[in-house]
Predict the structure.
Amino acid sequence: MNNYKQFINNYINKFSTPTDNYEQQNVQNNVQKSNLYDPYEGLIRGNMFTTLYDPYKIKQPYEIKPMNQQAEMLTYIDALCFACVDLSLYLDTHPNDQQAIQTFNQYRKEKEDLVKRYENQFGPLTLDSDSLNNYPWAWNDRPWPWEGN
């Protein structure tokens, strides 16, 4: 995953439905018009804003290389969560930036959709997951991520 185009293409090809493509393209266009990194680049750099990134001692951030589909989905979820948190911090001080609000809402929706897909395939991700409403208690029904598939 070297850039956002690859990130978004992987997401579209592996985890989205055909109706998601239009929304994905809109987010890609918004991000390209702004000073934001894509979610994956923001995650590995620790900052969504290209003008604020300071590499300090490391010239090239560490690339995350997921070992399987579950780890890959978790990486996408992490990247989208990071993007939402970083954009929410920006929106605390710039509440009228419509482009940032639109990008934040799109990333939040993508994250929610991907979490639902993850939980349908691999089980609950958090204790407040909707998939835990099953009887009996479903938290420990599936193997933990470190236990393999």
